[in-house]
Amino acid sequence: MAASMVETGEDAFRQMFKLYKRRNPPPDFSDVIDFSKCVTNDKIRPVKLDPAAVSDGDAANVGLHHVKDWRAFTLQGYPGFIFITNPFLRGSQPFWVRQCLKTYPQKPNICNLDMHMSPTDTQDIWAKSREPRTLLERLRWVTLGYHYNWNSKTYSANHYTPFPTELHLLSHQIATACGFTGFNAEAGILNYYRSDSSLGIHVDESELDHSRPLLSFSFGQSAIFLLGGTHRQDSPTAMYMHSGDVMVMSGLSRLFYHAVPRIVPAHQEVADLDTERCSWQGGAIVEQVSEEDWVVCSRYIHSSRINMTVRQVLGHGQSFPGTPPPPGHAEQHQAEDGKHMKRRRCSDSPNTEETR
Ligand SMILES: O=C(O)CCC(=O)C(=O)O
Ligand SMILES: [Mn+2]
User: Fold this and answer.
1) Ligand 1 center to residue 105 CA distance, Å?
2) Nearest CA to ligand 1 atom 8
3) Atom 2 in ligand 1: which residue has the minimum CA distance?
4) Which residue among 7, 89, 145, 146 is the one 20 to 30 A from 312 at the CA level?
5) Atom 1 (ligand 1) nearest CA
């Protein structure tokens, strides 16, 4: 056992998690990597994406800059980890924020409030969100597509509702630019963080095909994200995630421990979204958000953070154990052994470490 663990009874990841979560005294943030500052060194390496993989029109359709203008990085020692600093066109983030707050929490999608409220009460969280202290403030998670079961920590064939088309497209373009052709967005977990929320240490391994990347999109307030290794004793690297940033976890990093110990105030970028929205002309998919809707969204993201993670659950031609393979697919991969890491419990409490 490592010396530090003998002393404290805690693994290296947990020590770091507690350090960055600490309020009093606040931690020293000087070691937290800020990719938006664009320094490359021995640890932070630029990643060359294929600008021809996604046409400029396809990128713009989902509100993204041309791929040649994206700035992407990886970290030494984290194979398959890609960090793209805000690839969104000026004015397009408000659309995605509105989807997360107004559209995705609606039925048939599932949210934490459904756990102990009737469907009529959670039917339109948005309509009841004009006043402060509303249901929107109690929203902690939403699931899309194959709905993650927090108790069994599995996805299943019979717990599925259609995955949002526009989010599928956005994910597809990001994955394609990163070299993952044919990415099929099948499940989404959206996390809603208040300024004092955190997300506990975990690995996302419930998906049946780990060769497919996991995508993560952040909006609103910033966060400190910790990325460790395959063991809790591997000391994690801390980095900021700002509004618009996109993370791709693939390869070995796909199964690395990670966590969000702290939400940190955003700088000017969130305030800028208010003016950016007005300049957005709207497009094939990303439409301009109305003034009325933006009042609610803007108030929300001035104090909160939203993160969308998008996952492909099944490999090509794969099916859930005990269900027939999809028609037309001869080969079927064997599902993995079904062991799962500790994740959040089915709860509507804030995303504390204990709930993961
Ligand atoms: O909020 C984040 O940045 C991380 C979310 C996450 O790890 C998850 O939902 O599995
Ligand atoms: Mn995760």
Assistant:
1) 17
2) 309
3) 307
4) 89
5) 307
Would the CA dihedral through 279, 284, 290, 293 be positive or negative? negative
User: Does residue 204 have its Cβ closer than 6 Å to ligand 1?
Assistant: yes
Would the CB of 351 count as within 6 Å of ligand 1?
A: no
Count how many Cα atoms sit within 13 Å of the Cα of residue 306 in the half-sphere of its side chain.
Answer: 29
pLDDT digit string (tens) for 30-58?
Answer: 999 999 997 789 899 999 999 999 999 99
Over residues 279-314, the pLDDT tens digits come to: 898 788 999 999 999 999 999 999 999 999 999 999
44-46 vs 81-85, strand pairing mode = unpaired
Q: What residues are designated binding site for Fe cation? A: 202, 204, 258
What pLDDT is recorded for position 126? 85
Ligand 1 centroid to 123 CA: how many Å?
Answer: 25
Q: Which domains does the chain have, with CATH numbers?
A: 13-355 (2.60.120.590)
Q: Which atom of ligand 1 is nearest to 218's Cα? A: 3
Ligand 1 in contact with 112 (CB < 6 A)? no
Q: What is the CA radius of gyration of the chain?
A: 20
Ligand 1 contact, 258 CB (< 6 A):
yes
